[in-house]
User: Which sequence fits this backbone?
């Protein structure tokens, strides 16, 4: 038969070993946490930046579309003004005026509503 001797020194050694192992595990866990925390913060910031960039891109696309529509409207107004001035000078050009009115009406019907 085998006898197990327990004395105070053995109990102290076992308790110390458990304490040392527990402390080592705690230190490793805290070290891992300290090392991964900056990476988590950077990932959160990157996700926020990506969301902001997506919103900004959408807004810029809307602005570009609105600018394109304003360019078309300006071209129509300039050409209509030119035809009007030619008609005032010559007293004719009614065919061009009718064609321009139809072009402007079609543009107004087909244009898209751009909301910024």
Assistant:
């Amino acid at each position: 038969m085998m006898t197990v001797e327990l004395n105070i020194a053995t109990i102290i050694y076992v308790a110390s070993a458990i304490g040392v192992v527990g402390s080592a595990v705690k230190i490793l866990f805290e070290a891992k946490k300290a090392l991964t925390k900056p990476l988590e913060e950077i990932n959160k910031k990157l996700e926020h930046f990506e969301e902001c960039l997506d919103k900004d891109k959408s807004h810029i696309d809307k602005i570009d579309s609105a600018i394109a529509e304003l360019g078309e409207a300006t071209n129509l107004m300039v050409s209509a003004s030119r035809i009007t001035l030619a008609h005032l000078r010559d007293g004719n050009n009614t065919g061009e005026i009718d064609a321009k009115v139809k072009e402007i009406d079609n543009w107004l019907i087909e244009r898209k509503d751009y909301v910024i």
